[in-house]
Inverse folding.
């Protein structure tokens, strides 16, 4: 086990305190940057899409994992991001300007939703966000003059500062760049008072309020940040899909985002990334399952949503901390061998169940 | 932060250096070897429209397998790769990406879904992969004219126009109405309806839209009944066609109802114990009634083969898939052993009045006409079966 010996003030705020972490993250970053050298276009596109989902996952993670607010409507922000960006660039707005405008719009809409949802809890919040998703989907379908309605909307080709980015590796680097920005931004967020208050609200609204945190404002902020990041993912997703239709951003897509963060591990940025890797590999696993299972089961429509649901349930029952939690435990097991104890991961803090403030 | 900057710098360097990989030139075009041609497709094998995608794939595969047994076309067999899109746009994009970059297909055939095809056209054409006969009759499958876009079907829009014109000329309807699904498909039906209204100077008394999740049409039917509509044009899929039609008849409305090829399936007239009787469908193809004795010898043999191979009755899509594969094989035959994409598409454009072995309208292509059907057939549901009311209906 490595003992951290801090010699400078900067040591306190390092993202990656341990040497092992530094090596692992450094290797992953290097691999990601070098990926176009050894990956075929197909795998590169898949990897790019995975990065986009990682961004969306981080967006939802901030809201659900870090602030404790459930949202079944996050596909709506993917939709807002994708549509707003595509519409703007099709009217000749440059990519860089469009991204800024889209992220802002998405964030503002998120804050508005947060404003109306900030006093809701649990089921009510879940239903409210679901209703918001259906509203956005219907709205996109009906506003034909601008969104092309159900016939769909062609996303203009990707251009950055007037240079067309046609090759897959160029688009991949764009995705990668935004992943770096979002991961660093999110990691930084949780060292600021705002980010800390997110965590406080998640753990106990009553305690947070007692410490002078404005719970409603925190929720509005959290919705805003989360929606902005998800909107950014929508921008990148639009270029991967190259054609938008309102049905793409339905309940299943929201469920997919939820699955990502729950299975990845609520409350950690790494969890969102694990989740993104999982949902990229899941379709391959499902298509393999279909071949293995008897046709009566394997060829059923709707096997995918069923498996999504099942995986969420299994993780909530057996490993509430998700893949990230499991990974931590495994790592801890080896680092402290042979002193690993199950109780190391039993939560010490406990809060009163009753949080009634009205 | 330092690591981030160095990572960025490195990525910039790599971007400048660039790293595209070019496949080595061979004597054959992409997807073609001395003894095979790779053809790809993405369709719904396990999603909501699997009941269309699976029989379609079976039909295509049956023709390709027959070809292999017969020794191939100029010594080449078809290597048919199918990807499951589950009728989801992101998966269709992924599947196309795989087919083009990993499998390196020669052409795409029978890909399902309007947005799913529209989404991947640009990628496909950039890679010189033509789109042959997608399983959708959207106008965008052949308009605007593109050297690489070929559609098998007369569009949904023109099916509605053709069918409406025929019924109007025959019965002199003046008051018409439309009820369509709020999707890309419904929008096209509505478009055909609008064009027909304009061309024939009709009076629109009701226009309605519903969502796929709607199950109660009492309100819709009441509005239609009260509007005095004489001809109702339907743009729903299957379940809602049955629901709407039976609701209208239950409410005592006696007007004429017409749809396009989508409900033209053997299941529709059989649904609801004959309550579907009277429904018209305009379609650019004909599907033999496999449940009755088949008169045509060739069709009978085909049916027996299909049932033996897949252990299930063929659907309308199996028939369509088979014919699509046959059209491709015919063009490959015409090209000779020296295959290129330009030549195959040229041969396809040369197909004139292809006689569909299953019956129904003939199929022709030309450099200006990239859509197969030459005319429409109008069918009506009677006593649990589709009965041909009119043949060679122009559109």
């Amino acid at each position: 086990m490595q003992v951290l010996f801090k010699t400078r003030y900067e040591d306190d705020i390092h993202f990656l305190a341990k040497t092992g972490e530094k090596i692992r993250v450094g290797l992953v970053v290097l691999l990601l940057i070098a990926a176009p050298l050894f990956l075929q276009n197909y795998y590169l596109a898949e990897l790019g899409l995975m990065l986009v989902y990682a961004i969306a996952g981080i967006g939802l993670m901030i809201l659900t994992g870090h602030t404790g607010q459930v949202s079944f409507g996050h596909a709506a922000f993917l939709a807002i991001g994708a549509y707003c960006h595509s519409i703007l660039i099709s009217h000749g707005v440059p990519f860089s300007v469009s991204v800024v405008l889209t992220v802002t719009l998405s964030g503002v809409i998120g804050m508005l939703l947060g404003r109306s949802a900030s006093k809701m809890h649990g089921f009510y919040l879940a239903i409210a966000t679901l209703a918001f998703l259906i509203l956005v989907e219907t709205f996109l379908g009906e506003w034909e003059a601008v969104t092309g309605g159900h016939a769909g909307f062609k996303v203009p080709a990707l251009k950055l500062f007037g240079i067309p980015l046609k090759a897959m590796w160029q688009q991949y680097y764009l995705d990668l760049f935004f992943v770096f920005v979002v991961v660093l931004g999110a990691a930084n967020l949780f060292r600021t008072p705002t980010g800390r208050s997110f965590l406080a609200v998640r753990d106990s609204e009553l305690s947070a309020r007692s410490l002078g945190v404005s719970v409603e404002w925190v929720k509005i902020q959290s919705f805003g940040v989360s929606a902005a990041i998800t909107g950014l993912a929508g921008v990148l997703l639009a270029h991967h899909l190259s054609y938008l239709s309102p049905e793409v951003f339905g309940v299943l897509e929201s469920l997919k985002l939820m699955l990502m963060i729950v299975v990845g591990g609520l409350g950690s940025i790494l969890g969102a990334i694990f989740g993104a890797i999982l949902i990229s590999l899941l379709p391959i696993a499902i298509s393999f399952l279909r071949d293995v299972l008897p046709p009566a089961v394997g060829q059923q429509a709707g096997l995918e949503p069923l498996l999504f649901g099942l995986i969420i349930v299994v993780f909530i029952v057996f490993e509430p901390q998700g893949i990230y939690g499991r990974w931590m435990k495994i790592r801890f097991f080896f680092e402290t061998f042979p002193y690993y104890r199950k109780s190391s991961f039993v939560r010490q803090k406990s809060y009163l169940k009753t949080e009634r403030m009205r | 932060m330092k690591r981030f900057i160095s990572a960025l710098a490195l990525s910039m360097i790599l971007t400048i250096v660039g790293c595209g990989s070019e496949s080595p030139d061979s004597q054959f075009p992409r997807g073609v070897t001395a003894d095979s041609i790779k053809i790809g497709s993405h369709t719904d094998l396990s999603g909501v429209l699997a009941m269309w995608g699976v029989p379609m794939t079976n039909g295509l595969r049956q023709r390709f397998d027959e070809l292999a047994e017969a020794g191939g076309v100029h010594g080449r067999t078809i290597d048919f790769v199918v990807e499951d899109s589950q009728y989801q746009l992101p998966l269709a994009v992924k599947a196309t990406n795989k087919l083009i970059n990993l499998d390196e297909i020669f052409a795409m055939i029978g890909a399902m879904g309007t947005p799913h095809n529209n989404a991947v056209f640009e990628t496909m054409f950039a890679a010189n992969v033509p789109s042959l006969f997608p399983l959708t009759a959207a106008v965008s499958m052949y308009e605007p004219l593109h050297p690489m876009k070929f559609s098998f079907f007369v569009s949904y829009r023109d099916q509605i126009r053709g069918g409406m014109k025929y019924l109007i000329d025959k019965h002199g309807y003046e008051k018409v109405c439309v009820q369509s699904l709020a999707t890309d498909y419904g929008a096209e039906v509505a478009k055909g309806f609008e064009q027909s209204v304009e061309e024939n100077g009709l009076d629109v008394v009701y226009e309605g839209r519903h969502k796929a999740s709607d199950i109660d049409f009492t309100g819709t039917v009441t509005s239609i009944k009260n509007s005095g509509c004489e001809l109702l044009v339907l743009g729903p899929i299957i379940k809602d066609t049955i629901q709407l039609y039976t609701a209208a008849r239950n409410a005592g409305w006696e007007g004429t109802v017409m749809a396009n090829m989508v409900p033209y399936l053997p299941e529709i007239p059989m649904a609801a114990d004959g309550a579907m009787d009277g429904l018209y469908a305009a379609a650019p193809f004909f599907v033999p009634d496999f449940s009755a004795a088949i008169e045509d010898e060739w069709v009978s043999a085909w049916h027996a083969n299909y049932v033996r191979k897949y252990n299930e009755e063929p659907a309308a899509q199996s028939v369509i898939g088979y014919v699509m594969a046959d059209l491709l094989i015919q063009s490959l035959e015409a090209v000779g052993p020296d295959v290129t994409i330009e030549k195959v598409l040229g041969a396809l454009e040369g197909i004139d009045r292809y006689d569909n072995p299953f019956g129904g309208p003939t199929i022709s292509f030309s450099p200006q006409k990239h859509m197969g059907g030459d005319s429409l057939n109008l069918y009506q549901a009677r006593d649990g079966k589709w009965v041909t009311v009119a043949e060679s209906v122009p559109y």
In short: Chain B is about 40% helix and 15% strand.
